[in-house]
Every structure is written in structure tokens, then in C-alpha cells.
Amino acid sequence: xxxxxxxxxxxxxxxxxxxxxxxxxxxxxxxxxxxxxxxxxxxxxxxxxxxxxxxxxxxxxxxxxxxxxxxxxxxxxxxxxxxxxxxxxxxxxxxxxxxxxxxxxxxxxxxxxxxxxxxxxxxxxxxxxxxxxxxxxxxxxxxxxxxxxxxxxxxxxxxxxxxxxxxxxxxxxxxxxxxxxxxxxxxxxxxxxxxxx
Length: 197
Known about the structure:
Blueprint: H1 5-8, H2 19-28, H3 44-52, E1 56-57, E2 59-64, E3 68-73, E4 77-80, E5 85-91, H4 97-100, E6 105-110, H5 116-123, E7 136-138, E8 144-146, E9 151-163, E10 166-177, E11 185-188, E12 191-194
Antiparallel strand pairs: 1-11, 2-3, 2-6, 4-5, 5-10, 6-9, 7-8, 9-10, 11-12
């Protein structure tokens, strides 16, 4: 192992500087960085705790196989403009995964703050997600399109990338409508929230 000259002085007693040099050193030197306190070893719980503090937009992803499926997603990300690509994560244990794993096209819906109940419905295991009061219609490429959302896209799936117990789905937008009215729904601290002014 090679020791850097800078490292040899760590822990050595510091000699006081003459007053003028001490004044110049204090002006030039930044305040020492705070040490990270209470650091925890990485774990699924740590990751969840950190991301509870990260506010995210709320979307619903839909697809159609033998029947329509959908789930609430807070992992929606714009990937590229040329071509227009997006991504989202889906758990392989999700009831929607068998259909999403084979779907050629999927729908992505950006929810408004007036749609907390819809977000809850699509997040709840065992819920009749496409039954009343959910309003939807068949859109381009046969994809279920939800009514009243802020914006929606129909996308062609181009990749499904393994990522632990999830898959990252990358899809290219082929049609959509950005003209819905309202403000976005957010997910923060384990709850659906509205923007504050």
C-alpha cells in the first residue's frame, strides 16, 4: 500500500499558526464538513424510508390481455425525447405483471389531485380496478384509457430490464393527450397529496 504524504499527518498534533497566518487560513478554509450521523447499513427498509421523503408524481399504468389490468406507479420517468421514451418499475409479484410482461402496448396516465380514490383503487390488492366508479374506454392499440386524467400516453414496450424483484419497463410513446385540467397528484410520506402553494 502506498501512503500519500497528505495522509501521513492525519491525527498528528496541530501546531498553532502565527496570528496573521491563522486569520488568512480561517478566511480561505471552508468550514469542516459535518459528519453523517446515524448512518444505517443499506437495506430494503432504509431505501423505503429514504424514498418516503421523495415526492413523486402518481401515474396509473394499464394494459390489456385476456382482461384489462392496471396498477398505480410512482416510478414513472422520462428517459429520452428522441425517440420519446419513458420507464417505470413493476414488481414481478404484482397481479398485473403477467399481462404487462407480454403486452406489446401499455397506457400511462398522469393523475390529478382530484383522483386520490382512483390512485388508491389501482394500488389496492384484490380491488376491482376497472369496475364502477372507474370510468375508462378502449384507446389506441386496444389499451384501456382512464377518463379525467391530466394526461395519458399509449406506448409500445421496447424493453423489460430485470432489476431485483422488479422489472424496469422501457416504452416508446405512440399516441397521447396532454390536455387534461387540474393539478398533479403527488405521493409523499406514504400518502397521496396535493401540491401546496
